[in-house]
Amino acid sequence: MERARNDSGTVSSEEVKKLEDAIKQKQIGAVRIYDGALSEDFCDELIEVFEKNSDNHEEVDNDKIKFIQYRYSKFHGDEEVHENLKTHIMGLYEHYLTDLDLPNMIAHQGIESISIKKIEQTDEELTNPHIDTVDHKSAIRALGFLFYLENNKSMTNFPRQGIGVESIKGRVVIYPPTWEYPIIEKTPTEGSKYNLQTWLHYA
Q1: What SS3 string covers the chain?
Q2: φ and ψ at residue 175, rounded to 5 degrees
Q3: Domain for residue 128, yes or no?
Q4: Residues 6+ apart with CB under 8 A from 7
Q5: CB 138 within 8 A of CB 132
Q6: Measured distance CA(85)–CA(132) in Å, rounded
Q7: Would 12 be classed as within a structural domain?
């Protein structure tokens, strides 16, 4: 095993790396980022579903975030691919617990209706943070899952944790949706940003 310090008393590269990893872990907290959570082909299929169903799009526009939403579960909930996606998300939850070295402490009843969201290019930069659990109704949300369906340099920021997450196709961010983890979803300055989102629900 490499010694922590060499003969001159300087810190070894191994110790520096351990310190950097510890700092990074402290900053991340319970936010976890996993690449390749969805295949690129499946991401393309979900975007195609979104674009083909423009008649059922909903516009969300407030001072914190603006996007176009398609309620995927509402219109595809009886399809096998939807059930497979739900099973996959629960598998990611198990992986998340293992990563945090935690037992399953959440008595959960499954996941919220899955939505596909499109955030369009704009010159206006939204800087107001939002949280996913804001009232009694949304307090059922135990854990958030945010998937990126297309590459975009626009960031999802967790300012309290000092984390900026780039939109990389197939990547998922799993995070607590509570007030300790506010989010600033940057609007893209180039192209559009497609996300798929859901939340694990308390029982």
Answers
A1: CCCCECCCCCECHHHHHHHHHHHHHHHHCCCEEECCCCCHHHHHHHHHHHHHCHHHCEEEECCCCEEEEECHHHHHCCCHHHHHHHHHHHHHHHHHHHHHCCCCCCCEEEECCCEEEEECCCCCCCCCCECCCCCCCHHHEEEEEEEECCCEEEEEEECCCCEEEEECCCCEEEECCCCCCCEEECCCCCCCEEEEEEEEEEC
A2: -155, 155
A3: yes
A4: none
A5: yes
A6: 21
A7: no
What tokens does 78 get? 């009886």
Sign of CA dihedral 61, 65, 69, 72: negative
Q: What is the pLDDT along the chain (203 residues), one digit of tens a residue?
A: 333 434 445 567 776 666 555 545 444 679 999 999 999 999 999 999 999 999 999 998 766 667 899 999 999 999 999 999 999 999 999 999 999 988 998 999 999 999 999 988 776 666 678 899 999 999 999 999 999 999 998 899 999 988 999 999 999 999 999 999 999 988 887 888 999 999 999 99
Residue in this structure with the two tokens 């617990």, named with its chain if needed: 97
Structural tokens at position 73: 């579960």
Q: How many domains does the chain have?
A: 1
Q: Which residues face 173 on adjacent strands?
A: 33, 146
Q: 183 in a domain, yes or no?
A: yes
Domain that holds residue 138: 30-202
What is the rounded CA–CA span in Å between residue 49 and residue 71? 11
Residue 137 lies in a domain: yes
We report the CATH number of the domain holding residue 155 as 2.60.120.620
